Amino acid sequence: MTDDFPVLSAGPTPHTPLTDWDFTVRGATGERVTWTWAEFRLLPSESVTRDIHCVTKWSKLDTLWTGVSVDVLLDRLETTAAYVSAFSDGGYTTNLPLADLTGGKAWVAFGYGGDPLDPEHGGPARLLVPHLYFWKSAKWVRGLELRDRDEPGFWESYGYHNRGDPWREQRYQGD
Amino acid sequence: MARTAIPGRLNWQSARVGELIDETARARSIALELPDWTGHRAGQHVDVRLTAEDGYQAQRSYSIASAPADGRLVLTIERLDDGEVSPYLTDELRAGDELELRGPIGGYFVWEQSMGGPLFLIGGGSGIVPLQSMLRHHRATGSDAPLRLLYSARSRADMLYRDELARLTDEDEVDISLTLTRESPDGWEGYRRRIDADLLDAVGWRPQTRPLIYICGPNGFVETAANILVDLGHPPDRIRTERFGPTGTA
User: Fold this and answer.
1) What are phi and psi of B209, to 5 degrees?
2) Is the peptide bond before B118 cis (omega within 30 degrees of 0)?
3) Are β-strands A141-147 and A22-26 bridged in parallel, bridged antiparallel, or unpaired?
4) Contacting residues of A for B10, CB less than 8 Å apart
5) What is the DSSP letter of B190?
6) Interchain pair A174, B248: CB under 8 A
7) Phi, psi for residue B184 in degrees, rounded to 5
8) CB hemisphere CA count around A65 (13 angstroms)
9) What is the mean pLDDT, run by run of 10 residues, along chain B of 250 residues?
10) Which of A10, B14, B43, B223 might form a disulfide with B110, Cβ 3.0–4.6 angstroms?
11) Segment A115-173, tens digit of pLDDT
12) Of A149, A115, A145, A114, which is closest to residue A127 (Cα–Cα)?
């Protein structure tokens, strides 16, 4: 267990100004919805307390997050897609089954511990998928792309597990 | 140990401890003999797992210090006094003991000769270890990619690979800079301060040369160095980082 916040990232921390930030949901057939930061912050948000689990063997209990449920973000899009690629500043992507993001299980979080999420920990906004290993909770997230077919994201293409269920210790390929 | 051949699967294997080398008062290199090792790329790490008599298991990631062609796998491990795994590895482990590990792990924080340069390697504390693997690979392959290395340590006594780094400063392709953050020993010819923009600018390459930059160390060190280099004009996609976050309460 840890009181600090270890970091798994591959390059410099992006510092995108809020005036340049937007969030886009792209459908599998090209339709898209985009929110500016101001529009995004007008969406209904909620605060949730969850345990989080990093692939580098730490867990952090009872973390408090504020964000917009992915259900809200997908509300305006009809889709038959089964997978999602979350994309971020810095070029990172991570892949998830759509079912892991819907039904109140995932958020785009902009607050941590009652404060704005700082850039080092993924701010201004990161994906929050607490039931999977934390690399799936993409930092600096800028959008979700719905896909008919699954495709490995950044860490997944370097040997991390495709789904990343901490309760099955799915750290690396084949776990 | 049962080993089923699933492609891409990382199986645990038992390694036999060979030579042990005390690098500093707190750090030790461990040479390992593995029955089933497919090789690694410079910059990768392994997971080491310890099992107590009551079945309790603890595992941690450690960087590989040896070069791929060295013929043996060497880890360098620094003792964290309240760590669950490192004190055993630095203090208790003996030659001939068995150790469980799996790897190699990681594919982005790696350098291979074919990737070229110029190279700028920046290590803080034990963050030098994967960079040492890259440096050794660079020398072993006779790479002509110009390489600059900046190594920041608390004190001279905390510096890993001191003699080897001193020898390498004579080589044309390699330029090594050292800085100490917590002491200024007599006769010290390196830098004596924490990394800052002036130091990284003086020691590194001009951004126009588009160096490939690797930074490894504690999270704060890496964050500082990476932010400065971006501010100096280095493209973020040429900067690769590996951060040692605290595990547990360390």
Assistant:
1) -85, 0
2) yes
3) parallel
4) 159, 172-175
5) S
6) no
7) -130, 80
8) 29
9) 51 95 97 92 94 90 95 94 90 95 92 95 96 97 96 97 92 93 93 97 96 95 96 96 60
10) B43
11) 999 998 899 999 999 999 888 999 999 999 999 999 999 888 888 888 888 888 888 88
12) A145
Which residue is listed with tokens 């937007």?
A22
Cβ neighbours of A158 in B, within 8 Å = 106-108
For the purposes of burial, counting CB atoms within 10 Å of the CB of B245, is it exposed (0-12), middle (13-18) or buried (19 or more)? middle
User: CA torsion sign, B206 to B207 to B212 to B217?
Assistant: positive
* All residues at 6 or more sequence positions from B164 whose CB lies less than 8 Å from its CB, including other chains: B132
Q: Kindly provide the ipTM of the predicted complex, given to two decimals.
A: 0.83
C-beta separation of A15 from B228 below 8 A: no
DSSP string, B62-96: EEB-S-GGGSSEEEEEEPPTT-SSHHIIIII--TT
Nearest CA in chain B to A172: B10
- Reduced to 3 states (helix: H, G, I; strand: E, B; else coil), residue A151 is coil
Give yes or no for a contact between A120 and A13, defined as CB atoms under 8 angstroms apart: yes
- Interface check A122 vs B, CB under 8 A: no
DSSP per-residue string spanning A5-43: -----SSPPP---TTT-EEEEE-TTS-EEEEEHHHHHTS
CA B110 from centre of chain: 11
Nearest CB among B8, B108, B241 relative to A174 is that of B8
Q: How far is B1 from B11, CA to CA, in rounded Å? A: 10
